[in-house]
């Protein structure tokens, strides 16, 4: 019978705690970096556009999006979308986040292989995140092991996406810091503040990956232990 299972928390609990800590760390680092106005006087949008100009990327638009920390690069439409705080903000937090997202646009323009692989996995990972666990649970309830295994395979796509996403995000952050420094948009002292924001954000990706891996292991243990019975 599938119901409340304390074993689930033995598997996934550490990752959940890490995710909660990472989210708290992001909020603290972001709030801290927001207190410092960049000496360059640039907004996040101006920073993004300047970096795009430096790299000769003329086909990527920079637009505001009404979402708190909903900043992202859309490779399909070649649009860099920045939340109001980042788009209009002149803080080190705004510059760091904007530069990170431009890092993805640079990856795209350069044909960065992990980004291409990540983008290719998006449809399968989306399907997997929506129905995989349902298939596993239905398969276990009805004792249809093959259906449960299909669910595991689909969730495996989610895990693979998260694993591929890690180097993509870390690379974008390292590009962001290097770009800001080399183009005199931040000083070395300011770079330390930016680095704390980007490092905290990176930890959330680590937590998401660990959560996905441990969730897969938990459900795999249910499926294959049932098969052995």
Could you characterize what this model shows?
The protein is mainly α and 229 residues long. It has one domain (6-228). Helix content is 75%, strand content 5%. The protein is built from seven helices and three strands. The protein has helices at residues 6-34, 44-54, 84-88, 92-110, 113-141, 145-182, 188-228; strands at 61-64, 72-74, 79-82. The chain has a three-stranded mixed sheet with strand order 1-3-2. The longest helix is centred in the C-terminal third of the chain and has 41 residues, at 188-228. It is elongated, with a radius of gyration of 20 Å. 35% of the residues are buried. The mean pLDDT is 92.
Low-pLDDT segments: none
- Mean pLDDT rating: 92
**Separation of the first and last Cα atoms:** 14 Å
Strand content: under 5%
Class by SSE composition = mainly alpha
Shape: elongated
Calculate Rg over CA atoms.
20 Å
Count every helix, treating DSSP H or I runs of 4 or more residues as helices: 7
Count the strands? 3
Strand order of the largest sheet: 1-3-2
Question: What is the helical fraction, as a range of percent?
Answer: over 70%
Largest sheet: 3 strands, mixed
Q: What order do the SSEs take from the amino end to the carboxyl end, as H and E?
A: HHEEEHHHHH
In total, how many domains does the architecture comprise? 1
């Amino acid at each position: 019978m599938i119901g409340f299972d304390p074993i689930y928390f033995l598997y996934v609990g550490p990752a959940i705690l890490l995710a909660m800590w990472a989210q708290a760390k992001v909020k603290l680092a972001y709030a801290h970096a927001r207190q410092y106005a960049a000496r360059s006087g640039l907004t996040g949008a101006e920073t993004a556009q300047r970096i795009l100009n430096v790299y000769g990327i003329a086909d990527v638009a920079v637009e505001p999006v009404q979402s708190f920390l909903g900043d992202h690069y859309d490779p399909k439409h070649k649009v860099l979308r920045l939340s109001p705080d980042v788009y209009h903000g002149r803080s080190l937090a705004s510059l760091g986040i904007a530069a990170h997202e431009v890092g993805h646009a640079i990856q795209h323009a350069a044909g960065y292989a992990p980004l291409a692989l990540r983008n290719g996995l998006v449809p399968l990972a989306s399907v997997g995140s929506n129905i995989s666990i349902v298939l596993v649970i239905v398969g276990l309830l009805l004792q249809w092991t093959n259906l449960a295994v299909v669910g595991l395979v689909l969730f495996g796509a989610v895990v693979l996406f998260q694993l591929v996403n890690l180097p993509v995000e870390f690379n974008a952050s390292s590009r962001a810091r290097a770009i800001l420094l080399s183009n005199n948009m931040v000083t070395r002292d300011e770079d330390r503040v930016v680095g704390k924001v980007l490092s905290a954000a990176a930890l959330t990706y680590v937590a998401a990956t660990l959560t996905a891996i441990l969730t897969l292991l938990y459900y795999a243990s249910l499926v294959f232990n049932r098969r052995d019975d």
